[in-house]
Target: Acetone carboxylase
Amino acid sequence: MNSPDSLLFPGSADDGATVCSAKGCRSAAVWVLAWNNPKLHTPERRKTWLACEEHREHLSQFLGVRGFLKDVVTLEEWESPVTEGD
Ligand SMILES: [Zn+2]
Model:
């Protein structure tokens, strides 16, 4: 398993946990899925889900079939702070 220390990253806006967003999954996240629901969000808005290796594809497909998925990047790439309005 991964060392928790290597997963801490600055600028984490929420509860500080970098855990996969998949239901029931407690694995450390390595991917960030950036998405936008045009019915709820302005076009430049980005919501994010975290995903472990195992669930990246599943979560990507969930968002992708709805046309919500905008970007998939690693947590390391996603280090710059993201505007979280609410
Ligand atoms: Zn997972």
About this structure: The pocket of zinc ion is lined by residues 20, 22, 25, 27, 51-52, 54-55 (CB under 6 Å).
